[in-house]
Structure formats: structure tokens, C-alpha cells
Specification:
By secondary structure, the protein is of the alpha/beta class. It contains 10 helices and 18 strands. It folds into 2 domains: 243 residues, 3-Layer(aba) Sandwich (UDP-N-acetylmuramoyl-L-alanine:D-glutamate ligase), CATH 3.40.1190.20; 111 residues, Rossmann fold. The mean pLDDT is 90.
Length: 376
């Protein structure tokens, strides 16, 4: 809803749109109640060979903003299960489904289960791959392995014998690539001009699958190219991505949880909601949040603050002097100004430590990234 956006993709459709220019023989197997729709037609125009498998209903995801948990319609419990899709190929990317399942036979397969709520093993439904890579988020790798530590969880999945590679996506902290034999590589996230978050995991999995499963690139190289492609997608929010190798971008290096000062008004229910949502989102992404307005602390002073996020909506008349004080102290400040921003990030020459963001998600990520100064 905010920012306004609507599209018919699904993870598979988004992945196919991402890689079809790189791999013109791309085939998408998908469930759909109809063989013709706006979304399916647009994928075919891009050159995707769309293979439709019947399902009694469509599934929709609705987000209040790109970092919010989606509302799913119809509810999960009432989604009718369709017969599994059977796919054989040299290189296959398999996503988890809500309305069915996919049984895969492949030389190289990449599996992204798409859920941390009881994800199933790749082989549980009879799928087989000569070489398997798992692309998981932190919740999924913990759920599949039963271990809390991410490195130990990835090693456990490798040692179980099913996967040759485990890639753990960690949002603003990039990704961890674990390989059979014990090698581990940290792949950074990369800066973007804005952050459109819906679908970033699908873009990552599709580029990784193309580079590792089809082009036979080393897993760490494939994951790095996937991370760079995510940054390109975040900047535009549109597919397909520009042709060619992803443009050079600044890596994000967050060695420790950043401490973010959160400032803003709480005198209306709308202002209070945004402040609570900002604190929750920052915490979920690994930051420690100091918020005098919500915590009723007497002072915003904190010796270890690495960045500040200021919500302009309903802000007090002292906002200008407050921003100047933090700028003079050398504290990087991100100002969320939805009414007066152009939509992309801007840096004020008069206040070199101030970045203005035009949307909530970009502001959250910019505040985290401000703890990682840009390299000269």
C-alpha cells in the first residue's frame, strides 16, 4: 500500500523475469487457475516459456509497507492443495509452494523453501539432485537444522549429506556461503539508491541459481553476483534488470549490531504507529534501538550511537536545531520525509551527515547502513 505497488508475479514468476535475458531457454512451471492473465502474458512477452499447472484459486499477498508481514488471501488453512508439479532439467530452481509442491530431478538444483514454518527437506517428496544448493533465510536454516547458531546450522545441513552448498541470507548483513568441506565465505550486501524489499529474496535465488547451477560459477562468486543484482533491483523495484554484469556498488560491512537513535513524534496514533514500526523493523534487522519518545528516557544522549533515524511526520518545531546538533556531532542522520522527498535518497550539502529518504523501508536500511561509512 505504501508506496503504492501492485503486480502479478509470485516467486517463480519474479525469478523467471529476472533471468530470462541471461538464460533465454528459461521455463517457468507454475500453478494458476487460468492459462491466460496479465502476469502470465507479460512473462511470455519477455521470452519465458510458461507451463501452467491447474489450481482452483489464486493466492495473493498484501503488504502495508515492504517490510511488513504479508496478509495472505485466501488464508493458508483454506488453500486447496493441487497435485505436485514434476520437473526434470539440467539446472532447476525450486521454490516452496502454498498450493502444492514440486518434485524435481536435476543435475544441479537450488532449493528455496520460502517458509520458516516447518520447511521440508528437499528430498522429502522424492526430489533428487546430483548437486544441491540450499538458499535459506536465518529462520529457515535454524528450523531445518534445529540449531540457533547460523554457522553451526549451515554446517549441520552440509554434514547431513543432502547439500553441497548452503547459502544463508541475512538481509542488511549480506549472506553466508557454506560449502561441503568446511569453507565459509561472507558475502556483503550492497548499497542502493533506495530499498524496495518485496521480491529481493526471489531475485537473489534466481541469479544464484543461474550462476551456480547453469554457468557452474563457484558458489561464493554466484552469491556475490546475486547480492549485487539485489541492490540493482532494490533501486528500481522493476524487472527485468539492466543487461550485463551488475554495476559496481559499495559493499556494506556491519561488524557489530549498530546502535540507532530513533527520534520522532508520538502524539497521534499515526505517529505512534510509525515510531513503533520503525523500532520493530530496526530491531528485526539486528540493530539496537535507543528511542527516548517510546522509552520515556530523559535524554537522547548515548556514547555509542552510530546513526540516527528521524521521522519528520508530526515532528516538533525543534527538529531543525536537533538535526544540526547531531550533524555537528558527526552522527550520521537519516530523515524520513515522505511529503517533500523525490523518492530516492538525497544528501544535503549544508549538512553532510544528513540523508533524506522518501519511503519507510529505505529510511530503515539507510539508518543501518549509516553505521558502515562509505569507502573512499
Amino acid at each position: 500500500m505504501v508506496p503504492e505497488w501492485n503486480a502479478e508475479y509470485g516467486s517463480g514468476g519474479r525469478a523467471a523475469a529476472t533471468v530470462v535475458a541471461l538464460s533465454p531457454a528459461t521455463i517457468l512451471h507454475t500453478y494458476s487457475p487460468t492459462r491466460d492473465s496479465i502476469g502470465l502474458a507479460s512473462l511470455r512477452r519477455l521470452g519465458v516459456d510458461v507451463q501452467v499447472h491447474p489450481a482452483p484459486q489464486s493466492v495473493a499477498f498484501a503488504y502495508f509497507h515492504p517490510l511488513s508481514n504479508p496478509h495472505i488471501e485466501p488464508p493458508r488453512a483454506s488453500i486447496v492443495q493441487s497435485p505436485p508439479i514434476e520437473v526434470a532439467g539440467e539446472a532447476v530452481l525450486r521454490f516452496g509452494f502454498l498450493e502444492g509442491d514440486a518434485i524435481v530431478k536435476a543435475n544441479r538444483a537450488v532449493y528455496d523453501p520460502q517458509t520458516s514454518v516447518r520447511p521440508t527437506d528437499f528430498v522429502a517428496n522424492g526430489s533428487h539432485a546430483e548437486e544441491l544448493a540450499l538458499v535459506l533465510n536465518e529462520g529457515e536454516v535454524r528450523s531445518l537444522s534445529g540449531k540457533a547458531n547460523i554457522r553451526e546450522a549451515a554446517l549441520s545441513l552440509l554434514q547431513s549429506g543432502g547439500a553441497a552448498v548452503v547459502v544463508v541470507k541475512a538481509g542488511a548483513r549480506g549472506a553466508l556461503v557454506a560449502e561441503r568441506g568446511g569453507a565459509m565465505t561472507e558475502v556483503p550486501a550492497y548499497r542502493s539508491e533506495r530499498v524496495f524489499k518485496i521480491g529481493t529474496g526471489d531475485v537473489f535465488s534466481s541469479i544464484f541459481a543461474f550462476e551456480w547451477a547453469e554457468r557452474k560459477q563457484p558458489s561464493s562468486v554466484a552469491a556475490d553476483l546475486a547480492s549485487r543484482s539485489v541492490a540493482a533491483y532494490c533501486s528500481s523495484g522493476t524487472l527485468p534488470l539492466p543487461a550485463g554484469e551488475p554495476a559496481p556498488r559499495e559493499p556494506i560491512v556491519l561488524k557489530r549490531p549498530p546502535i540507532v537513535l530513533l527520534e520522532g513524534a508520538t502524539n497521534t496514533i499515526g505517529c505512534r504507529f510509525v515510531m513503533e514500526e520503525a523500532r520493530y523493523s530496526l530491531t528485526e534487522l539486528g540493530a539496537k534501538v535507543v528511542c527516548p519518545a517510546l522509552d520515556s528516557t530523559p535524554s537522547a544522549d548515548h556514547p555509542s550511537i552510530s546513526a540516527a533515524l528521524v521521522i519528520s511526520d508530526g515532528a516538533r518545531s525543534t527538529l531543525r536545531s536537533q538535526l544540526k546538533r547531531m550533524n555537528d556531532a558527526g552522527i550520521p542522520v537519516v530523515l524520513l520525509d515522505e511529503l517533500h522527498s523525490s523518492g530516492s535518497s538525497t544528501r544535503k550539502n549544508s549538512q553532510p551527515h544528513l540523508i533524506v529518504a522518501g519511503d519507510f523501508t529505505s529510511a530503515i536500511y539507510f539508518a543501518l547502513w549509516a553505521a558502515s561509512p562509505q569507502l573512499d
